[in-house]
Design brief:
Length: 144
């Protein structure tokens, strides 16, 4: 089993004022416990999570904490496998972005789908229902 963790989950976990904070905390507990299998994040998701946290909270400290958590830096478990989007995944992401133009996917979402296919990742842990009907999605709000 394996799961790619979407940027919104990292942001909501870091921002105690986020409406989805509690769900994100429960979801991370499940990931840490290994309930969803090996967690993955792409470099695109890393960028998006850190940037989203910085822009929504205005706090470099919180954004930096998200980056450190993803990287498994000192003070955080080295839990997440960080994957880089290579040329083949990028090309597949372009195709995915164009093919599912009616889904409202961001390009980063398209890279997530392409990476899931290349690495045979089972599901995406995301609040974003744009993934529905394309890949298996676990809604963090459904995890206890």
């Amino acid at each position: 089993m394996s799961v790619i963790v979407d940027s919104g989950v990292f942001y909501a976990h870091a921002d105690i004022d986020a409406t989805r904070h509690d769900a994100a905390v429960r979801a991370f507990d499940a990931v840490i416990d290994g309930d969803e299998g090996q967690p993955y994040v792409s470099d695109y998701l890393y960028d998006e999570a850190v940037t989203l946290t910085l822009s929504r909270t205005g706090s470099f400290e919180r954004a930096n904490r998200v980056g450190r958590r993803i990287r498994g830096a000192t003070g955080y478990p080295n839990l997440v496998t960080l994957e880089h989007i290579d040329r083949s995944v990028f090309r597949e992401a372009v195709d995915t972005f164009e093919r599912f133009d009616d889904q409202g996917l961001s390009f980063t979402d398209a890279t997530t789908i392409a990476l899931m296919k290349k690495r045979d990742i089972d599901s995406v842990l995301s609040f974003d229902d744009d993934f529905d009907g394309i890949v298996d999605r676990i809604d963090p709000a459904d995890l206890d």
